[in-house]
User: Fold this.
Amino acid sequence: MKKMNLNLKMNKKLLYEFLSVTFAVFLGLMLNQWKDNRNNDKLAKQSNSNILSEITDNKTTVQEMLEEQKLALARIDSILPLLDNSDEQGDTYIGMNFQIISSTSWETAKLTQAIVYMDIEIVNDIAGVYDFQDYYESIVKEFVVDNIYNKPEKRDAEFIRKMKVFLEAIIPMENNLIEYYDYLQSELIDIT
Assistant:
């Protein structure tokens, strides 16, 4: 009987230790999961904030370029009839300034896998805006590369016409890009 009481006490003690260790491990895992979730949420919020800041800067850059492109197009419209009706070239210089539009925050969010913890609809919207931005930049880059060696004094009516076609193509794209930035800003402001 003593032996049975001793076994029963030992079994109770083992059961108690087993349950307390199991509970401690469970608590540790829960705490670890909570910390991971908190860190992942913090990473997603930081990425959203960085993207919002980058989008705001990009919007300002595109707005500045848009104003310059509109002025350049107006200048082309005013000098093109003169070039068509005259053998003299005159002052045909049309300055255009293209600036780099950043995508560093988006690329960082992808590389750090922060997008895994971001809202899927927001990620989809962000990806769409950056894809359109990349498309816009590819068109600008192609034009610049094709015309980089065309000196201002060698710009003739044909080049001016090409520039006009180019500007007529990218001005609506810049307007669209600004609208996309506005939409994305409103979405990101709501969640940051």
User: Anything to note?
Assistant: The longest helix spans residues 2-84.
